[in-house]
Records
---
Amino acid sequence: MNIPQNIISRLNELPIEEVADRLGIEVRRHKALCFKHDDHNPSITFSTSKNIYKCWVCGVGGGPIKLVQDKEGWNFQEACIWLGQKFNVWYLDGNNRNFPKRTSTQKYLTKHKEETVIFNKEVYTWLINNATLLEPAKMFLFNERHLDEGVVKKLRIGSVVNSLNMVNALIKRFGEDVCLKTGLVRRGNDGLYFYFYTPCLLLPYYDMDGNLIGVQSRYLGTNEKVPRFQFMSSQKTRLYNLPILNSLRRGDKLYISEGITDCLALLSDGLNAVAIPSATILPIEDLILLKNYELHMYPDQDSAGEKAFMALRRFFINHYSIVRAEVLPDSVKDYCDYYIKKQEKKQEEKTKKETHFLSFFYYFNSILFLFYYYCFPYLEME
């Protein structure tokens, strides 16, 4: 089986630390113990900007595909198959729409099934119900992004500011063993810690029936080395905001965005929208559900945005449908940026109107006072 070069490129664009996490490598502050030698002090470092890893002791390193090869001892093709299955990176090959299954990878998945973290719906539901929107999250969502409060409430977006408090609350409610199995609580050299970097937003994923199927975080801190978005390795890649399909009819207009940020802006702007997690991960099973709608997309104005749109375009053409590209102004990078500038302009115009009204009010009162003073000088003001 020859794997197309564009698929290889997409696999190598998968976030290196997410790949490591799904391989069972514990990454903490962009470092991990090396799996190639007896390592007691983390000698592997991950570069999220270059999307590579390297061990500074034994010298192994490379991108996501190479990481899978080095960790599992597989050849290039087997590593690509595993990544394709894990991250839902599909392509059309004759009558197959996915990488063919290989015995070695299936044995690996069966062998390691007990070791992988489990998506415990009860625990995650409790997390979402108790992750209330705190001040840093409100500032980000409403003051910086100008998002609609009704949209945020409907999507049940929450936040976590103090990770230690959340770890203690989870363990008190469910016990340490259960929390460790979910992956929400991890054990490191310094003790237990919360999987998601904090402060962060928690963005729940639901299926069309409203069942919680996953959680994604959005980091709100200032550390530039921390990944902005995180998924749990136990959850399957899905579309964000699937329940909106229940309110649509065949042929209704629906926007597909690259990432949740643009999706929230589209929804706040009164448009129907769902989101793919990233330009390199396409949840095919969910995308098939969209083919009966009039699909539109505002591609991000960079190479990743163009790749995401072209991948979606190819997919829907093969399913006898089409996704139309909408054009953004040259001065913005994506729909979220466009939405923020539009809201800020509205606020400026509103402020100007209020200022003009106050100026007119004071001017009118001044004229009224002068008229009263000169026309009725004999009246005394008490």
---
Amino acid sequence: MSTFYVPAVNLIGKGVVKEVGPYVKELGYSKALLVTDKFIEGSDILPQILGPLDAEGIQYVVFSDVEPNPTCKNVMDGVAALKEHNCDFIISVGGGSPQDAASCISVIATNGGKPQDYEGLHKSAKKGLPVVAINTTAGTSAEITINYVITDEERKVKMVMVDKNSLALISVNDPELMVSKPAALTAATGMDALTHAVEALVTPGAYGVTKKLSIGAIELIKEYLPRAVANGHDIEAREGMVNAIFLGGMSFNNAGLGYVHSMAHQLGAVYNLPHGVCCAMLLPVVERENAKRVPEAFRNVAKALGLQIEGKTDEECAAYAISEIEKLSETVGIPKKLTELGIEEKDFDFDYLSKNALIDACAPGNPFMPTLEETIALYKELF
């Protein structure tokens, strides 16, 4: 049996943020903690969201102390703000970081404790506080998934939480909120989305529905990501990417991810690198190893990336898929090596990162379980 999780109401398309007010009012709550980050708070994005809320008389308090790669401190500060202002629901505004922080605040608000208590699969007992998730980047799909990631700054570990009780009530994906995003962020988040779709397609957890969703996401990303990076105001491309993350998010939310994410989480935790960049660099490295074990899983990836697969061997399909992924990364300007990001091999803690990758919650979704030595070898390919 397969259980399929997705928010109850999903607003998608140009201008939908203008319609959000009545949906929020209809929920009937009294005051929201609006969780966001400093960038969005100081940008032209926030007024586009506050306007429709103000028009319906919705009360809210803005909490913007969320860092990229949100920390336990960010979450606990958010919980404190929520209690101080007597908020009874949450509106999250932003990309993956505010969305993930909001998910964790929501769970702790009703279950108590601290973020570390919820690392792993479905650890909370009660449904989290209601969340209206307004997304501003085409990448993480955090607004529609039951996955969230919080950095334990003491242990230097990204904790992966998969929890059905953290699912938002309403998601909002309006491409008009994304046009001002810089090219590098568009590229990184878009490659994160590609990683979701590819990992969800090659995982043993994939099934009929999720496979079709992944294929659709990959097709859209190949077509629209280069355009969105080249011209942020190309609204058709932005809308194509919104559709891609909705499809891909539904897929990995239900099929699972794999070792690209396990390894990427460690780079983010220790070196505070952008998650999408880590995923993009690792994707061809890890999939090359996966293709040696399950080449047949790459037929669909190759097809989605434009190959006529009739008469082609599984191995040919896998080689084509990995080559196309590398080309797309290069087209959108993703670095190839960690040295380009200021990290030297002599300073890299291979052992620590590899050991943590092995116990990351995404690791069991990979087609095979690498050893410690194999993981170290994979990281070495980034130098």
